[in-house]
Design brief:
The protein has about 100 residues and is α/β, with parallel strands linked by helices. It is built from five helices and four strands.
C-alpha cells in the first residue's frame, strides 16, 4: 500500500523528497477530483491532506476522516505550521496509525 499527499504545492514537494508521491491542488474542484481518483485506486492505503486544502471542502473531509478506512485519510498541518491549540504532525500520526515520530 502506498502513501499519497494531496495539498499545498510546498508540502507535496517536501514529501516527494522523502519518496512520497503527491498531488498539488489549490481549489475545491481539484481536491475533490484528486480524492475521487484516490478512492478509485486500489494501491493507496494512506492519504495525507494538508490543512489549508482540507478547509476548502470541510464536509467531505469530516466524512472521510470519520468513515474512510481504505484509504485512511489524515489531515496534516500546512507548510505554515500548526495553528495554536491544534495537534502537531507527530501527534496526528501517533493517533492515526500508532507510530511516534
Amino acid at each position: 500500500m502506498k502513501v499519497l499527499v494531496i495539498g499545498h504545492p510546498e508540502a507535496v514537494l517536501g514529501f516527494s523528497l522523502a519518496g512520497v508521491s503527491g498531488r498539488a491542488v489549490t481549489t475545491a474542484a481539484e481536491i475533490n477530483q484528486a480524492l475521487d481518483e484516490v478512492q478509485a485506486a486500489k494501491d493507496i492505503g494512506i492519504v495525507l491532506v494538508t490543512q489549508d486544502v482540507a478547509e476548502l471542502i470541510p464536509a467531505r473531509m469530516e466524512h472521510l476522516k470519520l468513515r474512510s478506512t481504505i484509504p485512511l485519510v489524515v489531515e496534516i498541518p500546512s507548510p505554515q505550521g500548526v495553528p495554536e491549540g491544534q495537534e502537531s504532525l507527530g501527534e496526528i500520526v501517533l493517533r492515526a496509525i500508532g507510530i511516534k515520530l
